[in-house]
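Good morning C.,

I know you're traveling, so I'll keep this short. The sequence:
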Amino acid sequence: MKVSVLRIGHRLVRDDRVTTHAALVARAFGADRIYMTGVDQSVSDTVAGVTKRWGGKFEVQVIQDWKGLAKAWKKEGGKVAHLTMYGINIDEAAERLRKEERILVIIGAEKVPREAYELADYNIAIGNQPHSEIAALAIFLDRMFKGKQLKKELAGGRLKIVPAARGKQVREIK
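The tokens, ready to paste straight into the viewer:
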């Protein structure tokens, strides 16, 4: 299963850190790319730098037309899952979603347009209370990959964390 993330919206200055964190969570929790609207190159550069240092294959693509992307995704046979507190609970949908080959996960930065709900094959709730799109994305990806992505070794990086009960141990790979 391949999972990509679409983040709709970006409030300039205020959201640089949040958008970067959404991309980092997508990368660390098993997505292969994130599409973002309304961001400047610095967010893309930050995530590219992390990927270069820590390994793996992850893409950041800045796009203008999120609706066009979602429609093309569906036309090519992929499914769209929109994370919202108004959808069906993730635990009720996870098994069906895991059977899909390609999933585009929509998360919002601001109020998500009604079209996102309508374009989605699945409107998925990670609980029914207001919460962070970053937390929702992490939980969604964890459910999709059943926690296996947390033990996955990412090739090609220059740095690797050595798990330790205390302190920080980072090994440089030469």
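Safe travels,
E.
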